Amino acid sequence: AQSVTQLDSQVPVFEEAPVELRCNYSSSVSVYLFWYVQYPNQGLQLLLKYLSGSTLVKGINGFEAEFNKSQTSFHLRKPSVHISDTAEYFCAVSDRITGGFKTIFGAGTRLFVKA
Amino acid sequence: SAVISQKPSRDICQRGTSLTIQCQVDSQVTMMFWYRQQPGQSLTLIATANQGSEATYESGFVIDKFPISRPNLTFSTLTVSNMSPEDSSIYLCSVGMEMNTEAFFGQGTRLTVV
To answer: What is the mean pLDDT of residues A83-88?
Structure first.
């Protein structure tokens, strides 16, 4: 079964600084990876996804992620964060099951942007 | 994409009682999923619900505690039975399309057991 590991439980960063949230996945022949964001007291929102093709994936709100097969990583980056980016970020992977896929989530990384 | 509505959005329940959460989707979907998000935690998959068959439960979750119904391709229910304070969580409904690996989520049901 597929799994993902988020290496940092919390990441504090100052406003306008760059940030990287780390995610490693279990090795597989084919893998579909996602980053979701959950703002305080809100539902989940898809930031970006990697299904195939270009290893650099651009998402919403200025976020991007790079799929690295040799390092089995899918780290999320943003060159300059805002206070409004404070949220919980979840890396996720699709696991093939009969009829489709189920989504398995990492433990989450809390991004805290300070003024 | 899919629009998912969950009811209730929140509830406070007495221990020992049961609560049924409803999930309605605006289009027919093959697969529906139920997740639990305990306070400050990630999402844990409870079970996969397919229409016309019994739900498939993940390790650590059993049908007696979390019975699920899936009467048609747009609706599912999750019941949290014989509740205890440890069941206080957000419960989320999710759907997936066979050809699209992305999962779509409802806003969740915030359950507090007292």
So the answer is: 96
